[in-house]
Amino acid sequence: MSTDQSSYCLLDSGNGRKLERFGAFVLDRPCAQAVWRKSLPARDWSKADAVFIREAGTTGWQFRGAWPEYWLCELAGVLFRLQATDFGHVGVFPEHALGWQKMRSVAAQKTAGKLNILNLFAYSGGATLALAQAGCTVCHLDASPKMVNWGRQNAALNHLEAAPIRWIVDDVQKFLQRELRRGRRYDGVVLDPPSFGRGSKQELFQIDQHILDLLALTRQVLSPHGAFVFFSCHTPGYTPLVLTHLLTQGLPPGNIEAGELTLPAEGNILPVPSGTYAFWQQNPSPGPRR
After folding, report:
1. Res. 285: pLDDT tops 60
2. Which of 8, 27, 184, 212 has its CA 20 to 30 A from that of 59?
3. 134 φ, ψ (degrees, to nearest 5)
4. Pair 50, 98 in one domain
5. Distance CA 288, CA 290 (A)
6. Residues 146, 18 share a domain
7. Beta strands at 116-120 and 137-142: parallel, antiparallel or unpaired
């Protein structure tokens, strides 16, 4: 098990809960997928610094002692400013580190120039900062001004204030339509749509109703030689095969890898499924015939 006290680690899960260390603090939070038994004894769980309760009539955090307004945690080479939110979140989803690593690998292979990446539903900037570290130019878009500001704070923590990042607060579909009219195209697109959400002006987004239109716009904004589309999802029923079918129909012919997102675990600790992903990459152009 990792001994780096500044990083993330899944310590245990089971009985509908997950025990995680985010930097200096251990958190005990609900986890509907963890229907198996806990591996660690109750005394280890009782040492959690904070517990999030979501039961009938009770929702919120219970802290063992004084709690900071924010704290820091490193994940996959990116430093995050974390905060205990009213929803039980902290400002980063560790399962997304898998995608950052895959996209960084593609960026490292593109020696001809920097990739221009569009990160949609970008939250607190994990993918944005991971790609900026890899030398990419990134357009970071989220409908929440608070989350875009949070992303900027994370950029400062990682000494990326001067990195080529555009910070945009907007509705995703309206922004994509404007980008098409402006003639802007991107080498890669990152998509992590919610099951349900609101745009910057309360525009409604429901994945079942809008995902096909969203992918159609994504295809149009992708450059002719686009490198990748990384599509992740936490909506029940959106399995890796569903995401594969959506990208097969919605994007040009390419290679698609799909699977489960999981909270990374070490040793005998059981990994926790936390959504799905599909990773599309452009088929390489055939070389000249000899």
Report:
1. no
2. 8
3. -85, 5
4. no
5. 6
6. no
7. parallel
At 33-91, the pLDDT tens digits run: 999 999 999 999 999 999 999 887 788 999 998 999 999 999 999 999 999 999 999 99
Owner of token pair 């890899």:
134
Q: Which residues, in sequence order, are bridge partners of residue 27?
A: 20, 50
* Calpha distance 125→111 (Å, rounded): 24
* Within-domain flag for 88: no
Q: Which residue has the tokens 């780096």?
A: 4
Which residue reads 């909506």 in tokens? 235
Q: What is the pTM of this model?
A: 0.92
Q: Is residue 288 part of a domain?
A: no
Out of 6-10, 155-159, 255-259, which region has the weakest mean confidence (pLDDT)?
A: 6-10
Residue 269 structural domain: 94-282
Contact between 10 and 267 under an 8 Å Cβ cutoff? The reply is no
Q: Which amino acid is residue 43, in one-letter code?
A: R
- Confidence (pLDDT) at 289: 44
